[in-house]
Write a structure and sequence with these properties.
The chain has 9 helices and 16 strands. It is of the alpha+beta class and 432 residues long. The chain has one domain. The strands form 5 sheets. The protein has a 7-stranded antiparallel β-sheet, with helices on one face. A 3-stranded antiparallel β-sheet has the order 8-9-10. A two-stranded antiparallel sheet has the order 1-2. The chain is globular. Bound molecules: flavin-adenine dinucleotide (FAD) and iron/sulfur cluster.
Amino acid sequence: MDELDYAIRLRMMQNLANETVTHRHSAKDRAEPVRQYGSFNPGTGVGGAGEHWGAVSNRYPTDQFTLATHLHERFGSRLPEDLAVQDWGVTYDDLEPYYWRAEQMMGVCGKAGNLRGARIDGGDPFEGPRSHEFPNPPHKLSYFPSMFRQAALDLGYRPFPIPTATLSRGYRNPDGIERAGCMYCGYCTRFGCMIGAKAQPSNTLLPVLRDKKNFTLKTGCSVRRVIHRDGKAEGVTYIDASGQEKMQPANVVLLSSWTVNNIRLLLLSQIGEPYDPSTGKGTLGKNLTHQVNQQVQLFFDKPLNLFMGTGGLGYAIGEFAGVPMGLDPSSGILRGAEIRAQTSGEGPVSSFGKVPSEESPQEWGSQWKKQSLQWHDKVAQLTPARQPTWPIARTIWTSIRPIPTTLAIHCCGSRSIGPITKSARNSFLRST
Ligand SMILES: Cc1cc2nc3c(=O)[nH]c(=O)nc-3n(C[C@H](O)[C@H](O)[C@H](O)COP(=O)(O)OP(=O)(O)OC[C@H]3O[C@@H](n4cnc5c(N)ncnc54)[C@H](O)[C@@H]3O)c2cc1C
Ligand code: SF4
């Protein structure tokens, strides 16, 4: 696998030179094209981002489905008037059979913490009731998450393995699709799996679909409009792989081109009422959410073998998800997040250059290179993850900062702890 090609130059993502989205900070700004990727990596081609995802396969917590009700009960008049959160209209219990079906299809690995209401040691103590144990057991545990797990146990938390759709063993799903167990090669997130251990649309859905007589896959096509009349879909127009515009008649059109592309297609097709931020009217494009992660770096004195791993390999604690323990409800912080320690696999390029800012303030030059070699394979991350709906969330990391610091100290000698982003480097703090 070529790290430069896939993980740095993002070969499996939409080519921004061909097509991109625009961005603006307020309705008054001019929309500017996004020319460089940050965390926003739209997939392209057959299977989309599901081909290069990390395969972390959580279910949402039960209260996520009635979040508006929950927040209003807890925070009442202190909530902003324009709070965007709504209840979903379906509950966790409604979705449970579908979660289970998808988990079987993908072969998700993990350990149940709640089986039909009975709490199980070793699983997520905060999860909703599962009708079944996971289809596959958790992965083998790598070094850094094993330290995190022990540190969390020592501090009285209840760590659990992160559910992941990279297989911990060979598996045959209910559709009869067989896939091999993961080799922990580490070329996982942002890559396709060469042995099919990671659940991807190309190795779970396509093998089933291609045997159906009424299924045709057309690749290299781009849908331009949904054709509709009197509120009913009649088909789509698309540009095919040879550049010809075609019409595909249809009674039912499923929009599955990912959130932003779906909205664009609906806008272009003049379906729905576009959201107007100045009046708050309209639903199309309202409440766009995106996953936003922050990480804290931990610096160790010994190598961690971080080249080995798989997308979701690791342990988490859930004590700070939901409304975090020990947080003052008047702080204005509505929700917390899980804290995760993962070894997803680090290639030679991405693992280089992680240095405590106090030892090399700039990220260039001979001093930085020297320090990078010294710190190579000794830097791991704690990540707050599985945050609920983001329009209401703001970063809680600074508020819960003492927690990763304590965990880091307990992680068998993490020497220091610091933020991963350059902008946050100034707040680097020593923990020992
Ligand atoms: C690096 C990375 C890691 C991730 N890791 C995780 C993880 O560990 N766990 C998790 O739960 N989620 C993860 N995600 C998120 C997850 O992959 C996406 O949420 C999911 O794939 C979205 O699925 P989708 O079908 O909506 O869209 P996509 O997977 O983006 O698929 C959309 C498809 O539509 C095609 N398309 C777009 N426009 C058109 C058009 N006009 N006509 C025809 N086709 C079109 C695209 O080419 C693409 O093939 C990750 C995402 C990325 C980028
Ligand atoms: S880490 Fe495992 S699942 Fe991921 S690409 Fe390698 S073998 Fe496949």
